[in-house]
Amino acid sequence: MHAERSDSPPLDAPSELEAVVMMVLLTGDHVLWSRAELEREISGVRGNPVDVTDAIDNLCATGLLHLHGELVAPSRAARRMTQLNDV
Question: 54 in helix, strand or coil?
Fold first, then answer.
């Protein structure tokens, strides 16, 4: 029996976690989130503890997030892209 090949990344792939972090940050009325708040929010959705440190670092490096100490906020560019996608 051959295992089926899957081109989709595993559930905990870094890009998926980055997408979830962005979704949480860009929806709702919450402007600033702490790392701990993001971890609790995402862990609640996924049902297991999640470390968002690498996702936040990667998103900051690409200019999609701003990091102010322990507080995280989406960049203007990220918010604008969300507005354009909603059109």
Answer: helix
Quick: pLDDT tens for 11-37: 457 789 999 999 999 997 788 999 999
5 CB-side CA count, 13 A: 1
- Total tally of structural domains belonging to the chain: 1
Range of 78's domain?
Answer: 14-85
Spatial separation of the C-alpha atoms in residues 87 and 84, rounded to whole Å: 5
What is this structure's pTM?
A: 0.77
Question: What are phi and psi for residue 76, nearest 5 degrees?
Answer: -60, -40
Structural domain includes residue 80: yes
